Amino acid sequence: MNTNELLDLMSAGPRDVDRRDALLKAGKAGLQIVLAALPLGLAAGCAGIGKLVANDPKRAADVLNFALLLERRESEFYKIGLETPGLVPASDRAVIEQIGRNETRHVVFLTTGITGIGGVPDTSTQFDHTGAGKVPDVFRNYRSFLKLAQTNEETGVRAYKGQAPFLMDSPTLLTAALRIHSSEGRHVALLRHLRGLKGWISESQDTGYSPITYQGESNVTHGGVNLSSVSKISHRALTEAFDEPLTRAQVMAVVSPFIRKAA
């Protein structure tokens, strides 16, 4: 699969246009108009924010701010990588740029949504993308950059899955979150492809920078049924067919080393 084919997979859907001006010009015209300018059909989710806010406004803002933390980190990560001379090879640049654009749009959506429900977007967190020295060459070695990008995205996929139960009383907001979730899944598959890996996780094999990201992936019991007992498919293949959620605590255990400590 060449770069153009990879981009075709990532860009499927509405035509890509620059929404920033539309967002700025929307001003006081209302949250609905602002959200209508967003890509990927994410605006649909905000109609349901009202119900979640009515039930528990603090929880709504908390869930969205947790997602914002992850998306801000990813958006900043790609921005720095793309601005670092000589890091991203020309053959992969279009793919990394597209992933970065997607992450920036996720940040815009979440920020706008939090503001729209009367919450305050938490943008105070600063990041250390070396993980306090865990990945010291992340912006000098492209292999390290790709490996950490994969870890970030796979953690994000499982984080959205883990937060889904807390959005069950707002089906449209849940739908919006799942649209981001599937976008993150595409990012993972593409990054794994660039690294010469399968597009999915096998067993709990750690191919990134954090074993926590892959914990529990060897599970083959779903809906109370142990699939190994009713199928002749290998255990390894069964694990590849399903993906597991991560709890918020697990996600933060992965992310915390990459959060810059306050002075």
Number of domains: 1
Radius of gyration (CA) equals 19 Å
**DSSP helix count?**
10
Query: What class, by secondary structure content?
Result: mainly alpha
The main sheet orders its strands as 1-2
Largest sheet: 2 strands, antiparallel
The average pLDDT value, as a whole number, equals 82
Q: Could you estimate the helical fraction of the residues in percent?
A: 40-55%
Strand content: under 5%
Shape: globular
Instruction: Count every beta strand, where a strand is a DSSP E run of 2 or more residues.
Output: 2
Low-confidence stretches: 9-52
What is the ordering of alpha helices and beta strands? HHHHHHHHEEHH
Q: How far from one another are the termini?
A: 46 Å
Please describe what this structure looks like.
With 263 residues, the protein is an all-alpha fold. It has one domain (3-258). It contains 10 helices and 2 strands, in the order ααααααααββαα. It has helices at residues 3-11, 20-26, 31-36, 49-55, 57-83, 90-116, 142-163, 171-194, 235-240, 248-255; strands spanning 221-222, 225-226. Strand 1 (221-222) and strand 2 (225-226) form a beta hairpin. It is globular and about 50 Å long. It starts with a helix and ends in an 8-residue tail after the last helix.
